[in-house]
Write a structure and sequence with these properties.
heterodimer; A: about 400 residues; mainly beta; 5-stranded mixed β-sheet; 3 helices; B: alpha+beta; 5-stranded antiparallel β-sheet; 5 helices
């Protein structure tokens, strides 16, 4: 009897252990899938701009020799990603790619686009419908083409134009679309002919169902909301929308007003006049770039260190970018312990596992991904990328 | 003829009468003149023959011929590879021109100097405004680009650019705190921040 009990005990133990192991592996696979990203890389001295899908950005190394260029479309541009698929824009078409077991991109279908230049802005309206504009984002008539693409079969569902309100002699530049409570919010730069943003920040609001114009809201607390393809907004768990200004001379070109974060509360379509997080005053005159939500009312913001900027080319090629953790509720700031970086475009994204990934091209020549964990508030160096002149963008898959 | 009279004649010290005597003597034919002349020329020819350098041996002749051929071919090659090019746009508008596969569109008063040497093709562009560069040659070209319209000199007004073959570039002046030089591959304009992107689009008329 004792022998039977002992045997039964070990049998149960082994079964438990087996299931425990399986669950652990499942979690590992799930976590790995939740952290996969695509990197765009730049080796301009060789005219090479390949892509590299990285399964685990938290550790290890990757090398340019394992990256892949898109055949016939070497200058494809990252647009967005969803459900493991990547969308890239080329001269004439927007293409959907899957990622195979060797992390290579496989074309799954294309649709004629509205242009290549200007940096494509987009948002998924639902699981399959993509609102996207790929054409230049400054036009004299203030009309901007958009498409709604069915990404399941890559067909164009609708094509149209939106008009952003501008004054005569000025220009507007729409930034990434934001879907909020059935509306499409379009932060845009309203600027003079020299591309200096006027002293207010604007958001145009359209009905997401038919893209009909509803209104434009403005705030004079800061200038220039919207930072092109770089994330510059955050939607908190309660639905409040936060937008960071990009009025640094790099982008909006109006530093007479402070950079900061404004809020539009959930189910509202007006700025919350009681909220403004003045970053410039907290950061000794510096101005901001992008912003990404990190969970728990915290965001990671991109800051240009003004004291290091002697010429315009320093914004793009100098090591002048630092990152801060910002608590949207308490308005406290904490500088992240990571190196100064160059090239601010598309350098931040949030992984499906909730962590924020930051591409750092450091002055010591090391290109590395840093991971910020909102649960602990800690940041650590992960994957080191070798033999790329710099990492020029990333998107979480 | 009196030798002393001849000396006096050549010294210019003769009286008119003495001059008349010398002239009459000089006008008289010399006896056996032709015989004397032929003997004289035979002596001169003999002297010349003895002074001529001995003939070259065959190796020396081959080397000399080869050297002449090498100099000739080298001169032709050098003339071709050292096909340096200099262009100055003295018109009041932008002008396009090409040099050995390199194509430029230069602003007024812009200048381009292309130096071709073996295995190293370099160039120097000086301009104010913007310039288009297309390299349709078979090799990359190292070029130094210089803004010459800036009010003050700083390192941001010039830069080295490796103009890769089969690529097109646009270089332009941008004023931030001072004039700066911005260069971008035409196909990578979307890499530029918005203000520069807009400027590049205007230049390319897109």
């Amino acid at each position: 009897m004792n022998m039977q009990k002992t045997t039964l005990f070990f049998l149960i133990l082994s079964v438990f252990a087996t299931f425990s192991c399986n669950r652990s592996e499942d979690e590992s696979i799930s976590d790995q899938q939740g952290s996969r990203i695509i990197l765009s890389l730049s080796v301009p001295s060789q005219g090479s701009y390949p892509f590299h899908v990285v399964a685990d950005p938290d550790s290890g190394t990757a090398d340019i020799k394992d990256s892949h260029s898109i055949p016939d479309f070497p200058n494809s541009v990252l647009v967005t990603a969803k459900s493991g698929y990547v969308f890239l824009n080329s001269k004439d078409k927007l293409t959907k790619y899957s990622v195979d077991n060797q992390n290579k991109l496989q074309a799954e279908g294309s649709v004629a686009n509205t242009g290549l230049l200007g940096g494509p802005i987009s948002v998924f309206l639902d699981d399959k419908r993509l609102l996207v504009s790929t054409a230049p984002r400054q036009t004299k008539d203030s009309l901007y083409s958009y498409q709604i693409i069915n990404t399941e079969d890559m067909t164009e569902e609708h094509r149209g134009k939106i008009r952003l309100p501008v004054t005569p002699g000025s220009v507007a530049s729409p930034s990434s679309y934001i879907l909020k409570d059935g509306k499409i919010l379009v932060p845009y730069i309203h600027a003079d002919e020299q591309n200096h943003a006027y002293g207010k920040a604007n958001v145009a609001i359209f009905n997401a169902s038919d893209m009909s114009y509803e209104k434009t809201i403005s705030t004079s607390k800061t200038a220039c909301l919207g930072y092109s393809v770089v994330s510059s907004h955050a939607i908190a768990e309660n639905g409040d929308l936060y937008l960071i200004s990009s009025n640094a001379n790099y982008w909006g070109g109006n530093e007479s007003l402070p950079s900061g974060i404004v809020r539009i509360k959930a189910r509202q379509t007006e700025f919350d006049n009681d909220y403004f997080l003045n970053l410039t005053s907290k950061l000794k005159g510096n101005h901001s770039g992008g912003m990404i939500y990190a969970g728990g009312d915290k965001v990671i913001v991109q800051i240009f260190e003004n004291s290091l900027i002697k010429a315009y080319r320093d914004y793009q090629q100098g090591f002048v970018i630092s990152y801060y953790e910002v608590d949207l509720k308490t308005q406290s700031l904490k500088k992240l312990n990571i190196p100064l970086s160059k090239y601010p475009r598309r350098a931040i994204d949030r992984l499906k596992n909730g962590k924020v990934i930051i591409a750092i091209n450091a002055e010591n020549g090391e290109n590395a991904l840093y991971t910020y964990d909102g649960a602990t508030g800690s940041v650590r160096k992960g994957l080191v990328y070798t033999h790329a002149e710099f990492m020029s963008g990333l998107i979480a898959l | 003829m009196d030798k002393d009279l001849l000396d006096k004649y050549f010294a210019g010290q003769c009286t008119p009468e003495e001059i008349e005597r010398v002239m009459q003597w000089l006008s008289q034919p010399v006896v056996n003149e032709n015989l004397l002349l032929s003997k004289s020329w035979l002596g001169i020819r003999t002297h010349i023959r003895t002074a001529v350098t001995p003939p070259l041996n065959s190796w020396v002749r081959y080397i000399a011929a080869a050297s002449i051929a090498l100099f000739t071919i080298g001169g032709i090659i050098w003339n071709r590879i050292s096909d340096d090019f200099e262009y100055r746009n003295n018109s009041a508008s932008y002008e396009a021109f090409s040099a050995n596969g390199l194509q430029f569109r230069l602003p007024p008063h812009g200048a381009a100097i292309i130096n071709n040497t073996i295995g190293n093709r370099t160039g120097n562009l000086v301009f104010c405004g913007h310039v288009h560069i297309a390299n349709n040659s078979e090799n990359d070209v190292n070029m130094k680009l210089n803004l010459n319209c800036a009010s003050t000199e700083n390192p941001n007004q010039s830069m080295m650019l490796r103009v890769r073959k089969d690529q097109r570039y646009v270089a332009f002046q941008y004023h931030y705190k001072s004039d700066e030089l911005v260069v971008v591959e035409e196909e990578r304009i979307f890499d530029l921040p918005l203000p520069l992107q807009q400027r590049a689009l205007e230049i390319l008329d897109i």
